[in-house]
Amino acid sequence: xxxxxxxxxxxxxxxxxxxxxxxxxxxxxxxxxxxxxxxxxxxxxxxxxxxxxxxxxxxxxxxxxxxxxxxxxxxxxxxxxxxxxxxxxxxxxxxxxxxxxxxxxxxxxxxxxxxxxxxxxxxxxxxxxxxxxxxxxxxxxxxxxxxxxxxxxxxxxxxxxxxxxxxxxxxxxxxxxxxxxxxxxxxxxxxxxxxxxxxxxxxxxxxxxxxxxxxxxxxxxxxxxxxxxxxxxxxxxxxxxxxxxxxxxxxxxxxxxxxxxxxxxxxxxxxxxxxxxxx
Length: 279
Hints:
The protein is an alpha/beta fold. The chain has helices at 11-19, 54-66, 84-94, 107-110, 116-125, 151-165, 186-190, 200-217, and strands at 22-24, 33-38, 71-74, 101-103, 131-135, 138-142, 174-178, 223-227, 239-244, 247-252, 261-268, 271-278.
């Protein structure tokens, strides 16, 4: 089931809407900064590239030659076949940004079930499956939304609660990154009323979103949540923004060799703006 908001009939209108969004913040960033978000970075599912999607690599090179990029966030499905060799290829492709990459892993990266080999490879090559960082006083949270059943789900809910309890000022912007757009899983939403689902993975992601939305809506902070797994199907939109009070929900993705894009996020004194780059 595909959420109707993502059917790809208004791609350039979506680009325009994202690029004209301005989020007013209480932050006083003396030094503005920018970062890039890219989803489904290995590109076309039917392709054969071992590393990152070549047009994406070209796009990153152009952006980093034109401006200072603080870091890169990859929204999962980074490599079609993760291996030590392919991770090294990825780092070579990213050049000087390679040591400033954060990943919200997808099923290709850590598996959709308890794939210990993939998990261990990811943690060895990249780091924790979910984590937080603070950059210029803003909070960045990276989650693993691939199988949230049982302990794997409870661990991240506990991590999320503890992390948000440490937010002491409403001037801090909270950025959250996931592979799945867990806030629009249409099939999961349809079973919210009876709290049962034949698709346990979808339901577990819905439970995480309900937890997150409840916590975020009680904060005065701006929340920006960005997901990167919507471009793989022919009729899915690859760029989108939706705003719910203090929660700003975006997607950006590659995957069909058309309508591919990356998202540049600019944080400055008092505002957050976006630049969707199509290629």
